[in-house]
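Below is how a single chain appears once it has passed through the pipeline. First comes the sequence as given, then the structure the pipeline wrote out for it. We keep one example in the README because the format questions we get most often are answered faster by looking than by reading.
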Amino acid sequence: MRTVLVVDDSRMQRRILAASLRRWGFAILEAASGDEALEICRANPPDLVLSDWMMPGMDGVEFCRRFRRMDRESYGYFILLTSKSGKEEIAHGLDAGADDFLTKPVNSGELRARIAAGDRIVRMERELTEKNRLVRSTLDELRTLYDSLDNDLIEAKKLQQSLMPDRYRNLGAAQVSLMLRSSGHVGGDLVGMFDADGTGLGLFGIDVSGHGISSALMTARIAGYLSAAAPDQNVALHRLRTGRYVLRPPAETAAKLNRLILDEMDTEHYFTLLIADVDMDTGLVRMAQAGHPHPALQRADGTIEFLGTGGMPVGLLDEAEFQQIDCVMRPGDRLMIHSDGITECAAPDGSLLGDSGLHAMLDDLRATGGPALFDALAWRLAQFAATDTFTDDLSAILLEFKPR
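Resulting structure:
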């Protein structure tokens, strides 16, 4: 029930107004002066105020002004009763904070209409206030959930980074450097390496479709299939009767992963893959490219060649076939296996870096190697994109045969 405060120095006038308001379903408070009305407003804030303009001591305009200064949780609708009808007087009342006016003597029908209009405004204000409260409460809950999720994602990023414990390895005649920079907390890219039979080295770069948590979970699952710590679970390794593990042909590994994804995972995700088998004694590198960008082979004399024909991603088609790419690396040569987050890095005008842009960067950075190359490359990409906030993950492997 809405509460109406009737303020008038005339007791008779207050009774007449109060009687009508009670019939219309309002609770009534009465005050004979502005000072008394302010005390009532402090103790029991009314929803609507009906106040005479002309009163001894504090008049209705001053009471309205002080009423507006009061600290309230909700809006109070204020109607001035007056015999004044001049524009200046009305403007004076509006400046003081009045919402409406009623001319004395008060007509019952007009009073009911004005009160009903004020009641609608008060009711809408209450509804809006409640909705805002619910919105604030919901936002607070969402903020709490977001903070919790953000903390979980930070931990998930640490776990994902732990899938790549070695960022650099010195192999004597060669060295391997790895880069993984997720565009968000977690990403769908992963690079890694594993050993076999003493002279063999396995390298892989994967890029799961999509972004976010589901892609990261699939990345973690695939990492288990190519684990360096558990060779008996690594599908790229084959155990001989002697107990030694040797590398499978890369194309065979890609096909095996394709069957595993399609048979064992109920997912719409697929992934691109570049998996390589490196013979450290001869420099022979055998690779299978499954939709991954063309690896860049930079010879000791600086010439650069992009290898491979593309191929189908893993996890799309049962009958997908994967081709093998062979190359022989010599002292001073280096091979970079990278994800499309590098070649598809976009400039502000929308143009992509592409193989030609990467070619130019690698040519400029001929004298830079190891992890320093990736730092310089990331800086060049930020310059190209005019931002260091990339929209896709950046990942790469750099295999460098040391010059003699």
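Residues 22 and 28 are 7 Å apart (CA to CA).

See the next section for the split statistics.
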